[in-house]
Design goal:
Blueprint (H helix, E strand, L loop, with lengths): L3 H15 L4 H17 L1 H4 L13 E7 L6 E7 L14 E7 L1 E9 L12 E10 L3 E4 L6 E5 L7 E7 L5 E6 L4 E6 L6
Antiparallel strand pairs: 1-2, 2-8, 3-6, 3-8, 4-5, 4-7, 9-10
Helix pairs in contact: 1-2
Bound molecules: fe (ii) ion.
Length: 189
């Protein structure tokens, strides 16, 4: 049985994701609910949601919609583990359960014409998301960033809700100005 706090959140997230809402309205509605959900995290996170991997950050599935319209993961970041530069192709809401998650933004200077080359990215700001913090993003243009935990900080754990199954995303080679689609693995719940 799904724990009540998670059940409630998932039901509301489904209603938002299936409703006639713009992605920006969707994250506007879901961000406060994520704020509540991370407070309740000890009531529904189980040992398998805290699985880590010494080779890279770990993605542990908590819930996925049968129609693929929604997915919720617990991500575990050991010190020194980072994503590649990436976007999501989806709206998303992120909440930090433990530690400090660091997000380094990139700003796309070239127009997005759908091409995988000729992409000019410049470094943007940094955001430090401490326990209890919530952030979100919407697509088109998508949010391009690197997320992780510097080697000198302790482990972070974060909840990530996306408006699709997050089984692949665009990664960027900033120096080459290219991007490519890669598959990203996760642990089933
Ligand atoms: Fe991301």
């Amino acid at each position: 049985m799904t724990p009540p706090a998670l059940d409630h959140f998932v039901a509301l997230a489904h209603a938002q994701s299936r409703g006639p809402f713009e992605p920006a309205d969707c994250v506007l509605a879901l961000a406060p609910l994520m704020l509540e959900l991370i407070e309740q995290a000890p009531s529904f996170l189980e040992p398998q949601h805290y699985r880590s991997d010494p080779a890279h950050y770990a993605r542990n599935l908590i819930h996925d919609a049968s129609d693929g319209s929604l997915s919720l993961y617990a991500l575990v970041w050991q010190p020194g583990q980072w994503t590649p530069v990436h976007d999501h192709g989806s709206w998303g809401v992120v909440g930090v359960v433990e530690g400090v998650l660091e997000e380094r933004s990139f700003v796309r200077m070239s127009p997005d014409r759908g091409a995988d080359t000729g992409i000019e990215l410049v470094r943007g700001g940094v955001i430090l998301l401490a326990r209890g913090a919530v952030t979100s993003f919407v697509p088109n243009p998508d949010h391009i960033h690197v997320t992780g935990v510097p080697a000198e900080r302790p482990r972070a754990v974060s909840l990530h809700l996306y408006g699709r199954m997050m089984t692949d995303f665009n990664t960027y080679d900033v120096a080459a100005g290219t991007r490519r689609r890669v598959t990203v693995a996760h642990n089933e719940s």
